[in-house]
């Protein structure tokens, strides 16, 4: 069985334009141990009092992989190896 320790952190790339916006990773929880070689990351903007014009773009990155630019609030990464990931 494969276990992956995942450490999560979040930044909203558009903070310069919207300094009060915060991003929260919903899944997986920080420190989660996964028994598969993929992870689906779900996130959301947590400050609804601050309007975000249009659909925000998120940059989502796992370890040293190239960042993925997306307007969705989830991203799946495949091919994980055992160990800690950020």
Reading the helices and strands in chain order gives EEEEEEEE
Using only CA atoms, what is the Rg?
14 Å
Strand content: 35-45%
How many beta strands in the DSSP annotation? 8
Label the overall shape.
Answer: elongated
Estimated helix fraction: under 10%
Uncertain residue segments: 13-17
In spatial order, strands of the major sheet run: 3-1-8
Mean pLDDT: 77
Please state the structural category: mainly beta
Beginning-to-end CA distance, first to last residue: 21 Å
How would a crystallographer describe the biggest sheet?
Answer: 3 strands, mixed
Number of helices: 0
Describe the structure.
The structure is a single chain. This protein has 86 residues and is mainly beta. Helix content is 0%, strand content 38%. The strands form three sheets. It has a three-stranded mixed β-sheet, with no helix packed on it. It is elongated. The relative contact order is 0.32.
């Amino acid at each position: 069985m494969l276990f992956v320790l995942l450490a999560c952190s979040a930044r909203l790339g558009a903070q310069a334009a919207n300094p009060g916006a915060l991003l929260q990773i919903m899944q997986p929880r920080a420190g989660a141990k996964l028994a598969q070689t993929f992870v689906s990351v779900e996130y959301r903007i947590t400050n609804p009092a601050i309007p975000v014009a249009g659909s925000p773009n998120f940059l989502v990155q796992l370890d040293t992989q190239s960042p993925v630019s997306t307007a969705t609030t989830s991203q799946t990464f495949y091919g994980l190896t055992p160990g800690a990931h950020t």
